[in-house]
Write a structure and sequence with these properties.
The chain starts with 7 loop residues before the first strand and ends in a 12-residue tail after the last strand. The chain is α/β, with parallel strands linked by helices and 868 residues long. It contains 29 helices and 39 strands. The protein folds into three domains: 216 residues, Rossmann fold; 241 residues, Dimethylsulfoxide Reductase, domain 2 (3-Layer(aba) Sandwich), CATH 3.40.228; 171 residues, Barwin-like endoglucanases (Beta Barrel), CATH 2.40.40.20. Bound molecules: ligand MGD (2 copies) and molybdenum atom. Its cofactor is Mo-bis(molybdopterin guanine dinucleotide).
């Protein structure tokens, strides 16, 4: 165990992807028991550079190699601000008007404050609640929300620890993580190419190398390589983009905003309206078919169902040819631009780059543009040199020696150390609820039926399995208690306001949250337990997310003592287990070093080095595999010989028409067997053709924050100074920026810096106007993840939590993914009368303790701040 008092330097994985698969390595200097600074990691700190084999890309006499210094993002380097945030939960809390033996006042969730309670008292209350709920309703009456992104930790895995205890006690209802980042690929692309864990191609070694050598053009379609690689792995992707520019690869950005990548790398920006990409893609296919400029030979040998696809594109089915003129009215791109794009795409060797795919992969009907992209790539010879889909520098980098595909989703580590992660992968709990349906399950009187759960690793077949909630068996139970370690359902997922309302249901007798910071769903809980951050625990992390430079496994020695009375997520569960007589089962009696050693073995490091050497150096640095250059790039083998290297679809080819979808969902008009443009459905009415545009004429784009990772890092004082992070209102409050084009602002009398509102029938969210021409007209743009600060819970939010007004529905009828971007809204000035009304309705909301530099404070929600 490291010395926890003296000055020292420890290692950390600073990416915020969560779990054991880290990225963005860093070094933390500790002085006098406090974090002094966080700085980039030196990969050669304990290794001789000559002893490590590195990869190298070469083109036109230029070379790209990994740099020996890591490149963490700004929020990673500022992480000490998170550890010492004024928002940290310092001790256990209980809602002032929640009495387990009397009135529970569920209607006050989101309104009432909290008081301090001791660990001993609170764990007794929790143990009694669990026993009572189990006896009265059965084990499935407890919903475990334990999966999402977060700090990279293994032993202290940020999510799912409660599942270990509840599993020993007989089970629970599992909130299944849906395909989140990949919705469209998972629910759509998988039906065309049958591949990939999540529906994007994976593992994808050497795609980046192959594009470097062969692509003439890359379309950054819903992609910002200067922003989202930051979240998990840091800024190396930026170097790659500069290199691609240097070697003459043309970079075209297709996105509603001139995003940060486009602003510095784009040769051309094509501003499309949010979630209308399917129209643009169909018009490209139309032009290729009309002009005969697609790869006919490839289509002949590698594709099934092309005729049916082509009939729809050319309008033989519905009498509507999907011409550039047709598309232009829907996607806002002028028809001449569509034609130029289609022709250049056909003429040049082209790949499409994503980090994950942006808003159109997470909007209503996102399976359609996802499927269409695979069809377009298929029409230009997907897998041929330089023709790929990229998941930029994430999965597409060279293979490392000793790492395999399963090193990433290491089943052994998952089983022992992150059991509930496995749960979302393999669906081992019977009573399951997709994350996207939780609010419906809490509200609906009727049992819910849904197809598939969206579990990220699930096979295509899983999409055809019907589930029912509550279980239609004797074990079926509605939700009476929620235990969450992922308290951002309201701010990160669909139907936020409906969720807030559902959390006030009297049927839910107890809501327990464990979290480092007092925010979001914590405010709707009855009991809140203080979890600590990765700086406060001893751990081991496998940095094998292929962020670009190196891969490594590192020991993460404890940097500082826990803040306040906080405990690790694991210790919290253990404390509760003790009160229930399950201590032994939960802890399994292993010491920290024993677990670290096990991870070392699971990663097969015993074959590459010794435990002693690893312990002495503190990390193991992988070399590139000796034969890394021999890996086939992406679909290249399929392209070369589809018979010998077939796909995972029933026909073994690219299916432009899916017989499987036709068979299972013959009546599904939202996800028909061939990809289409969907104008409207029972679930969603979010197109510019809708009569709703009379009141809500703008399409909302909602990206991943440059300065945050979802709901994480909203409180960092250093980044909050950036005008694209927060806009300071005239009242001194720092509002979430709402980007709007100059012409749209003028129409509404909005000036840069004004406090404005973004709204639809589902509610109102306040923000600060960011008037710009870096966004096309017809669009309002706000990132998701700002902390909720309810003025009227379920109706008006001051914090800028945009998902409170996102659709409460899912991707489409048979696809329970999120629909959180690309929907109709309006933007307007906040009137004095509105302020007055809100103040009258909830004066307390305007009196909350607030720190302009860091935002909402812990004591805003706590009565009688304690001594600590
Ligand atoms: N509008 C809009 N909404 C979106 C998207 C979009 O594009 N637009 N994208 C979607 C996508 S792809 C995703 S992945 C989701 C976000 O996905 P989530 O994974 O739900 O969000 P995060 O905020 O990253 O993390 C989850 C929670 O874990 C907490 N946490 C972090 N570390 C720890 C820890 O060690 N212990 C405990 N107990 N808690 C911890 C965080 O503070 C946060 O409350 O958002 C989705 N929502
Ligand atoms: N800094 C930071 N990094 C992150 C995260 C974070 O929250 N912050 N989150 C992590 C996670 S979990 C994920 S899933 C990934 C997400 O990675 P991405 O999917 O790449 O991220 P997004 O910000 O959703 O979208 C990228 C870009 O798509 C464009 N875009 C948005 N809507 C549309 C549309 O309708 N059509 C088109 N053509 N373009 C559109 C915008 O220009 C946007 O900048 O990022 C990861 N990394
Ligand atoms: Mo994601």
């Amino acid at each position: 165990m490291a010395d926890t008092k003296g000055d020292k330097t420890v290692f950390r994985s600073l990416g915020l992807g969560g779990f054991y698969g880290g990225g963005a390595e860093g070094m933390v200097d500790v002085k006098d028991g406090k974090i002094l600074r966080v700085r980039p990691f030196r990969f050669d700190y304990k290794y001789d550079r000559k002893s490590i084999r590195t990869w190298k890309f070469e083109k036109n006499g230029k070379t790209l190699e990994p740099t020996w210094k890591s490149m963490p993002s700004p929020f990673s380097l500022a992480y000490k601000k998170r550890v010492y945030s004024p928002n940290r939960i310092k001790y256990p809390l209980i809602r002032v008007d929640w009495d387990p033996n009397g009135e529970r006042n569920p209607q006050n969730r989101g309104k009432s404050k909290y008081r301090r309670i001791s660990w001993d008292e609170v764990t007794t209350i929790i143990a009694n609640e669990i026993k009572r709920i189990h006896a009265k309703y059965g084990v499935n009456a407890i919903l475990m929300q334990g999966d999402g992104h977060g700090e990279c930790k293994t032993i202290n895995t940020p999510h799912g620890q409660p599942g270990i205890l509840l599993d020993h006690m007989g089970g629970f209802t599992l909130q299944v993580r849906n395909a989140d980042s990949w919705e469209g690929w998972y629910w759509g692309a998988k039906h065309v190419w049958g591949q990939g864990v999540q529906g994007m191609y994976w593992p994808a070694h050497n795609i980046v190398k192959d594009s470097t050598e062969h692509s003439e053009m890359v379309l950054f379609w819903g992609c910002d390589p200067e922003t989202t690689p930051w979240g998990f792995t840091g800024q190396f992707c930026s170097s790659l983009m500069y290199f691609w520019k240097d070697i003459g690869i043309k970079q075209v950005y297709i996105c509603p905003d001139l995003n940060y990548g486009a602003a510095i790398h784009a040769d051309k920006w094509i501003p499309v309206l949010p979630n209308t990409d399917a129209a643009l893609q169909l018009a490209i296919a139309y032009l290729w078919i009309a002009e005969g400029t697609y790869d006919k030979e490839y289509v002949e040998t590698h594709v099934t169902g092309f005729d049916k696809f082509s009939d729809y594109v050319m309008g033989k089915d519905d009498g509507v040819p999907k011409t550039p003129e047709w598309a232009s009215t829907k996607c806002g791109v002028p028809e001449w631009t569509i034609k130029a794009l289609a022709r250049e795409f056909a003429r040049k060797v082209t790949s499409i780059a994503h980090y994950f795919g942006g808003g159109y992969i997470r909007g209503p009907w996102s399976h359609e543009p996802a499927r269409l992209e695979v069809c377009l790539l298929g029409m230009q010879g997907l897998g041929k040199p330089g023709v790929h889909q990229h998941q930029l520098s994430y999965f597409g980098m060279p293979r490392m020696e000793g790492l395999t595909g399963t090193s990433f989703w290491n089943p052994e580590i998952m089983e022992r150390l992150a059991l509930p992660v496995l749960s979302s992968v393999a669906n081992w709990q019977e009573s399951v609820l997709p994350k996207t349906l939780v609010h419906k399950a809490l509200k609906s009187e009727e049992p819910l039926k849904f197809m598939g759960t969206g579990a990220i690793e699930a096979s295509v077949a899983a999409q055809f399995k019907e589930h029912e909630f509550p279980l239609p068996t004797k074990d079926g139970a509605r939700i009476r208690m929620i235990w969450t370690d992922t308290p951002c359902r309201t701010t990160c997922w669909n139907g936020g306001n409906e969720t807030e309302e559902a959390l006030r249901s009297p049927e839910v007798e107890c809501i327990l949250a464990q979290h480092p910071w007092l925010e979001n769903d914590c405010l709707f809980s009855d009991i809140i337990l203080p979890a600590n951050t990765h700086m406060e625990v001893e751990d081991i992390v496998t940095n094998i997310r292929q962020g670009g430079q190196f891969a490594d496994v590192m020991l993460c020695h404890k940097a500082v003592e826990p803040v306040g009375e906080s405990k690790s997520d694991f210790e919290i569960v253990l404390e509760i287990a003790k009160k229930l007589g399950y201590e032994q089962q939960v802890s399994e009696g292993a010491t920290t070093e024993e677990i670290q050693k096990k991870v070392f073995e699971y990663m097969n490091l015993d074959k590459l080095t010794t435990w002693e050497d690893f312990k002495e150096k503190g990390y193991y640095l992988y070399s590139a595999a000796e034969d890394w250059e021999s890996d086939p790039a992406g679909f290249s083998r399929f392209a070369e010989n589809p018979e010998k290297s077939p796909l995972g679809t029933p026909s073994r080819k690219l299916e432009f028409y899916s017989e499987r979808l036709a068979k299972h969902f013959p009546d599904d008009k939202e996800r028909p067997p061939s990809p289409q443009w969907i104008e409207k459905s029972e679930m969603h009415d979010e197109r510019l053709s809708s009569p709703r545009t009379k009141d809500y004429p703008l399409l909302l784009m909602s990206n991943h924050g440059r300065w945050r990772v979802h709901s994480q890092c909203d409180d960092i004082t250093w980044t909050r100074e950036a005008p694209t992070m927060k806009v300071t209102g005239h009242d001194g409050y720092k509002y979430e920026p709402i980007w709007i084009h100059t012409s749209e602002a003028e129409k509404r009398g909005i000036k840069n810096g004004d406090i404005i509102k973004i709204f639809n029938e589902r509610g109102i969210v306040l923000g600060g106007a960011y008037v710009t021409e870096r966004l096309r007209p017809g669009v309002a743009y706000i990132d998701h993840g700002a902390r909720i600060d309810p003025i009227i819970p379920g109706k008006v939010d001051r914090g800028g939590a945009i998902n409170t007004i996102s659709p409460d529905g899912v991707t489409s009828k048979n696809a329970v993914g999120q629909a959180t971007s690309g929907y109709l809204v309006e933007v307007g000035r906040v009137t004095a009368q509105e302020w007055e009304e809100w103040r009258r309705e909830n004066p307390a909301a305007f009196e909350r303790k607030y720190d302009s530099d860091a935002g909402l404070r812990f004591d805003a929600w706590v009565v009688k701040e304690g001594v600590k």
